[in-house]
């Protein structure tokens, strides 16, 4: 059972991206279909490939329903394309239903640990569809029922698979509890089954299928029982014979029916045994496996950053030690010189004294000899130092530490950040379903799907976005007639757009529908007694638009079951404020409505320019940096505390300490200054800096809440050496 | 170490304290409130804050505000020297840190030997004092961390207006 759970976990882990991909492809297909009336073959092949992969994964995990569904689904598409069936509405609907069923199965698996949805009717529908078409197209299939064009490829592939199956089976017979072998065998026979199905080789397909069932049992029991081997060997032999006869165009004489019966009966008898002790429920263990507390990731993130800094400190120490070592070398050299000088001196002394020294000289000579011995020992000791070698090793180890630390850091970072596309891609489906439900013609545009944001935030925004998309389709987009009368394209467009600005992620939900009239909103709010007439009379249009976010503004959803304009907008606002986000509504009557969500990043990476002003380092978001220039003191015109640069009088020049109202920042007196020019849609301004350090990616951390009121600082980041740099808000530089 | 365990065996009676200096006076905090003592962290100044807010420091990836408590208590602006330490403490919203002019010793005192804050003779706000204790010639003021934190927050809250 453990094995089975692991397999299911693995399967679930791997399904997200193929599922999203399937949805995307489906939408693309639908659009191609509308535009060109046909679907490119490459797309179909791509889908078949995804389905095949899912099928294999599901079969390996013993997920019978998903495996069955994906298999039939693939067959459906293959039929459609091999028999040039027009990819019509009916086929598209079947595809849509299959997609839905698959999602149900997967989510059931995730939540309850089992494939709960019932898909028999769907499978019947798909079978009926393929059956009907193959009847119609029977003539196009060759007399043997086998597609000749791919036969060669099929035979090559299958012969290889037979060989590898035989090999693994022999090894397994010696060691029947080896799980990887059982899995390998399963994979191989599954491939044989799949390709045989594609080639319309019903016999081989069926044998392979039954062999697969036996292997499933082996896997569940975590061992292959002795009775299995003759059956499996017999099965693969029969397949081998059929393939051989196909290759050499001879008639196959094997009795496949009785073989299949034998295989089947084995699987059945085993099933009965299994029924007696049903598998324990596994739901709880399944659910706890994937989720990680983001706080743990935060801690991990901090610690990994610390590792990088520790490495830098080690590097500094190594540098110091190296100087020490080179000093030691110098010392050794001096010693050598000293010794040779001393020896020369001794020789001269010897010559001077001649052969008959007096006791005084004798004593001096003896002492000199002692000195020589000491010198030699000293020199030996100095030469023997292992410090240099040890140091080199420390250096190498430090660099490995650094690499590992950076790797940990980036992995932890990646674990937290997800492209918003993961959330967005769901909307393909949502938009399609809602549009279908409401009978509206809507196309869906995604922009900035690669924009990354924190995983927990991406979970938090899905629900408000769904609310807004529903609203946009049901109330924003007009029906086709109205659109035609207004001179708009018949098909409405919903745009989901994400981008970074400053240290926020912006997400816009835009529809090109009828727009929202602030006056009507105000009247509605008046009727519901949410505001008074005097209040309304003083309101700007912007403030009237904001009425849409009032609690109790609309209750339409309770009546229709589909959200009314304004329904949930209050809920949306509170959901967003839970993740410290804000929402604004903008509208051009008759043209479009845009809801703009602004979500701060608790943890995000931005590209920034590190600048030094005085003793402090600041990070300036690179996207706001327009230009960097050097100016000399003479080029700066000072005029009543206002700065300008000659030749660029329109450019406002500012000093950071004035911008930030900082006490400490005093700029150094340099003749040449750097000016960083910051720009946004409202204008541009230059800021004087002492030094440009580097362009780098920084991890934004929020300032402690004690600093909440500080203006112009959006966060803080930890630099490579462990120092902190405040992250500047370009807006405060641009502010008049 | 053994002394602390002794404290745990009779948690009501014995208090483990860490003593430090602010200016020339001796103060102490409950050892349980203290997260860590740092030698000389790099301080990053944050603008628009009162002068006793020295800035922020980086403790293993945690960004922690640093206060000059002595200055807050009216002892004047502190200066950094060889013995200066930064004491990191736990408060309900995370951690804060403050500068101590010297770290003294760990002491273990009977709760009964702690005198309530006298109405005179203590130089700092009454709300910040949990009690005083006299050990031989030493006069130690035990700080009430909640009171201290409230005092700090007061000034910061005022900035919002």
Provide an overview of this structure.
The complex is a heterodimer of chains A (736) and B (161). Chain A has 736 residues and is α+β, with helices and mostly antiparallel strands. Chain A is 59% helix and 17% strand. In chain A, helix 2 runs antiparallel to helix 7, helix 3 packs antiparallel against helix 4 and helix 12 packs antiparallel against helix 14. About 6% of the residues of chain A have low confidence. By secondary structure, chain B is an alpha+beta fold. Chain B has three helices and ten strands; from the N terminus they run αβββββαβββββα. In chain B, a hairpin with a 2-residue loop joins strand 1 and strand 2. The longest helix of chain B has 14 residues. The N terminus of chain B is likely disordered. Chains A and B meet through helix 12, strand 17 and strand 18 of A and strand 4, strand 5 and helix 3 of B.
Computed structural class of chain B: alpha+beta
Please state the overall shape of chain A, judged from the principal axes of the Cα atoms.
Answer: flat
Q: What's the Cα radius of gyration of chain A?
A: 38 Å
Number of helices of chain B: 3
Mean pLDDT of chain B: 83
Q: Terminal Cα separation of chain A, in Å?
A: 68 Å
- Please bin the fraction of helical residues of chain A: 55-70%
- Low-confidence parts of chain B: 1-10
Number of strands of chain A: 18
Shape summary of chain B: globular
Strands of chain B, count: 10
Rounded to an integer in angstroms, the radius of gyration calculated over CA atoms of chain B is 16 Å
**Biggest pleated-sheet summary of chain B:** 5 strands, mixed
**Rounded mean pLDDT score of chain A:** 78
Trace the largest sheet of chain B across and list its strands: 8-1-2-10-9
Approximately how much beta-strand content do the residues of chain A carry? 15-25%
> Termini distance of chain B?
48 Å
Largest interface: A-B, 33 and 26 residues
Helix content of chain B: 10-25%
């Amino acid at each position: 059972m453990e094995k089975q759970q692991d397999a299911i976990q693995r399967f679930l882990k791997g399904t997200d991206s193929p599922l999203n991909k399937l949805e995307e492809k489906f939408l693309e297909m639908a659009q191609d279909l509308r535009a060109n009336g046909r679907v490119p073959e490459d797309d179909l092949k791509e889908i078949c490939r995804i389905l095949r992969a899912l099928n294999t994964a599901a079969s390996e995990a013993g997920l019978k329903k998903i495996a069955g569904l994906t298999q039939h689904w693939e067959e459906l598409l293959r039929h459609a394309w091999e028999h040039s069936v027009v990819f019509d509405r009916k086929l598209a609907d079947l595809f849509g239903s299959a997609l839905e069923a698959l999602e149900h199965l997967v989510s059931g698996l995730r939540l309850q640990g089992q494939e709960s949805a019932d898909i028999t009717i769907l499978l019947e529908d798909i079978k009926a569809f393929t059956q009907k078409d193959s009847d119609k197209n029977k003539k196009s299939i060759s007399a043997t029922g086998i597609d000749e064009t791919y036969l060669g490829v099929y035979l090559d592939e299958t012969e290889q698979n037979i060989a590898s199956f035989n090999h693994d089976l022999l090894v397994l017979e010696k060691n029947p509890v080896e799980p990887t072998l059982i899995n390998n065998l399963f994979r191989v026979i599954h491939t044989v089954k799949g390709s045989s199905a594609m080639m319309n080789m019903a016999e081989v397909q069926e044998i392979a299928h039954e062999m697969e069932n036996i292997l499933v049992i082996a896997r569940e029991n975590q061992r292959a029982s002795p009775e299995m081997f003759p059956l499996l060997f017999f099965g693969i032999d029969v397949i081998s014979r059929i393939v051989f006869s196909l290759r050499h165009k001879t008639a196959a004489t094997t009795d496949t029916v009785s073989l299949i019966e034998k295989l089947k009966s084995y699987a059945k008898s085993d099933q009965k045994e299994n029924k007696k002790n049903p598998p324990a429920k596994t739901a709880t263990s399944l659910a706890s496996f994937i989720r990680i507390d983001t706080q743990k990731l935060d801690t991990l993130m901090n610690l990994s950053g610390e590792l990088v800094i520790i490495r830098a400190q080690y590097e500094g120490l190594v540098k110091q030690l190296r100087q020490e070592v080179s000093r030691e070398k110098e010392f050794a050299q001096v010693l050598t010189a000293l010794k040779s000088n001393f020896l020369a001196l001794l020789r001269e002394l010897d010559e001077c004294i001649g052969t008959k020294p007096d006791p005084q000289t004798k004593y001096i000579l003896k002492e000199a000899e002692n000195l020589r011995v000491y010198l030699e020992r000293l020199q030996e000791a100095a030469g023997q130092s292992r410090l240099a070698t040890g140091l080199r090793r420390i250096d190498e180890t430090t660099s490995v530490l650094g690499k590992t630390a950076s790797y940990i850091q980036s992995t932890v970072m990646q674990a937290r950040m997800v492209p918003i596309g993961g959330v967005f891609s769901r909307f393909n489906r949502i938009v399609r379903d809602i549009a279908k439900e409401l009978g509206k013609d809507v196309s869906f545009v995604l922009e900035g799907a690669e924009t990354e944001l924190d995983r927990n935030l991406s979970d938090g925004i899905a629900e408000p976005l769904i609310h807004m998309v529903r609203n946009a389709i049901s109330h924003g987009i007009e029906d086709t007639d109205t659109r035609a009368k207004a001179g708009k394209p018949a098909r409405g467009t919903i745009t989901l757009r994400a981008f970074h600005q400053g240290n926020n992620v912006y997400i816009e939900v835009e529809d090109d529908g009828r727009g929202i009239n602030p006056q009507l909103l105000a009247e509605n709010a008046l009727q519901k007694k949410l505001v008074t007439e005097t209040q309304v009379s003083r309101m700007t249009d912007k403030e009237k638009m904001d009425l849409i976010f009032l609690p109790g503004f609309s209750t339409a959803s309770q009546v229709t079951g589909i959200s009314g304009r304004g329904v949930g907008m209050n809920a949306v606002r509170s959901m967003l404020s839970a993740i410290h986000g804000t929402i604004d509504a903008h509208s051009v009557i008759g043209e479009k409505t845009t809801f703009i969500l602004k979500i701060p990043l608790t943890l995000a990476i931005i590209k920034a320019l590190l600048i030094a002003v005085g003793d402090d380092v600041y990070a300036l978001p690179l996207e706001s940096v327009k230009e960097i220039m050097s100016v000399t003191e003479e080029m700066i015109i000072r005029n009543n505390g206002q700065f300008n640069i000659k030749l660029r009088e329109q450019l406002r020049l500012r000093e950071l300490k004035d911008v930030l109202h900082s006490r400490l920042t005093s700029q150094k007196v340099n003749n040449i200054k750097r000016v960083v020019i910051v720009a946004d849609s409202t204008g541009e301004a230059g800021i004087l800096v002492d030094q440009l350090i580097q362009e780098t990616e920084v991890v934004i951390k929020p300032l402690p809440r004690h600093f909440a009121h500080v203006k112009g600082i959006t966060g803080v980041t930890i630099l490579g050496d462990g120092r902190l740099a405040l992250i500047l808000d370009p807006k405060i530089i641009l502010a008049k | 170490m053994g002394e602390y365990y002794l404290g745990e065996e009779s948690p009501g009676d014995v208090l483990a304290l860490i003593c430090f200096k602010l200016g020339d006076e001796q103060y102490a905090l409950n050892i349980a409130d203290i997260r860590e003592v740092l030698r000389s962290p790099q301080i990053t100044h944050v603008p628009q804050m009162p002068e006793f807010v020295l800035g922020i420091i980086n403790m293993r990836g945690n960004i922690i505000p640093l206060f000059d408590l002595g200055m807050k208590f009216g002892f004047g602006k502190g200066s950094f020297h060889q013995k200066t330490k930064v004491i990191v403490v736990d408060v309900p919203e995370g951690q804060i840190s403050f500068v101590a002019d010297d770290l003294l010793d760990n002491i273990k005192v009977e709760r009964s030997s702690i005198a309530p804050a006298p109405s005179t003779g203590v130089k700092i706000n009454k709300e910040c004092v949990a009690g005083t204790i006299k050990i031989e010639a030493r006069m130690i003021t035990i700080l009430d961390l909640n009171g201290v934190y409230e005092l700090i927050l007061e000034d910061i809250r005022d900035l919002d207006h």
